[in-house]
């Protein structure tokens, strides 16, 4: 097992030798440079699910469901931390799916297939949302036309050097939108007492509007705590060269920063829903309804910034899903088929199927933008509900594999991590059964 780094050294994750003393500015720049995978992951996680679900929950139910948001963020942090620790610290250098395969040969097939299916479904609302944003912002064309343009743009730009420059521009738009949301949330003077009460309330209010309180709670769990989308982070930080226990402290700091960003963004959107949309009687049925919140306080500027940020964020997320989920699927395929892995090596991109999986996740979701298909908001709510169904399978496997001392040694789970994984499994199972009963009845 790798030795832990000297605690007196503050080195970049890619370095293991001491350097002369550095200025505070140099250390601060190194700290910023160490952040990256978490920010990329949180931008993908917050593409639309958190934005829509948090705004609906706030606009329809005030702060009554705030406890679901708090619980889901804790679940995501712990689950992704456990996944990351396993990836970095297992003695055989296994990927997550290879670790799952040690439990049962069913897992590589399930996780690989689940990644393709959920990648398609997640991108169905990412692409449709970006298309709706373009339609409303530019004032011409229709959603299906713009969805085709969004897909073509992603297909042309994905993997090219120009895309990195374009993505940075989109992140700036997303940051500007986020700043405006936070500004509007502050201007709305949130009720801190109501937020605190809702965070510890553990109650399900009476149904309001199209989306019942229970459905919104489950959709929030799916959007915020995630399931297969959590694989984005462990597979992402390998690109930064984090592969060993020595990188664990950098990974923890990076993930904590990302979760803090998620807390700020989710809370800002929720406050806007509760303090701006709810008092004005605005129910969230489309992107236009949420854009109204920024227009109320910031006028046309807020309206335009909101749509530019949404379009940039959703497009970036769609491309990210079309890049990362094929890696998960190929890993599952190579784990189940050793000969194929031997033929194409360790890099998923070397397998010809990677390109086809990527095209499937990027292109096929355009069918959900055909006229007559469910709207953007409905897709977000129900697809995030559906994502909860796979959570018990993942959390049960994770519970077993991260308690094996022969694989992780001193890095096995703490007792509270096991408690949370068990609680997460029970919650997801109960939710799935309750949804099935409600659907059948």
From TrEMBL:
Keyword Transport: no
Biological process terms in GO annotation: iron ion transmembrane transport
Coiled-coil segments: none
Domain of life, per lineage: Bacteria
A cellular component term, taken from the record's GO annotations: plasma membrane
Keyword Transmembrane helix applies: yes
Membrane topology reported for the UniProt record: Multi-pass membrane protein
Keyword terms: Membrane, Transmembrane, Transmembrane helix
Annotated compartments: Membrane
InterPro entries the UniProt entry points to: NRAMP_fam (IPR001046)
Segments traversing the membrane: 31-48, 60-79, 106-125, 137-158, 170-188, 208-233, 254-274, 294-325, 353-370, 376-399, 419-437
Main location: membrane
UniProt-recorded Gene Ontology molecular function terms: cadmium ion transmembrane transporter activity; manganese ion transmembrane transporter activity
Pfam families listed in its UniProt record: Nramp
PANTHER family assigned to the protein according to its UniProt record, in alphabetical order: METAL ION TRANSPORT PROTEIN, SOLUTE CARRIER PROTEIN FAMILY 11 MEMBER
Protein name: Mn2+/Fe2+ transporter
